[in-house]
Amino acid sequence: MTETADRSYKVTLILSIIITVSALIYLAAELRENTRALQASTSQEIIEAFHAQYQAVAQNDDLADILLRAARNPDEVMVHEKFRFYAHLFSMFRAYEIAYYQHEEGALDAKRWSGFNLQMVELISINGIRGFWDMRKHWFSEDFRYYIDTVLIPAAEKTDYKLPGS
Fold first, then answer.
1. Across residues 90-109, what is the average pLDDT?
2. Which of 46, 93, 146, 152 has the fewest Cβ atoms within 10 Å of its own Cβ atom?
């Protein structure tokens, strides 16, 4: 190989390396941006799921009354009211389970997760909500049950949350 050909080969090799490294840097930046967009979208979907739950309660006096009475003592409400209470809680816990897994997978950032978590700590400290969990936790995944039972419930036992009107 001549000296000119050897020099051309080395220049081509160096340019190929520079182009490859540049492409990798670009792809890493795109991946980081896509990850941020996915996190924002995931957070928004979970927020909307929780918001829909609270909006339904806020817009329906009968439902709000049932939920408050059943949360205090589920044995003091009628069967159809307890059914509505449990349906509401199932939906709430399912949304929280989704948030839990999104957080575990890195799609829900720590700031938003902290808010959901504190909310659930307080809610599961309420007699009727805790009773629902104890009775129906088998409806949820094993990892999620373990998290609720070993992290949330012990934290809830240290809280002094009171329902409105308590």
1. 89
2. 146
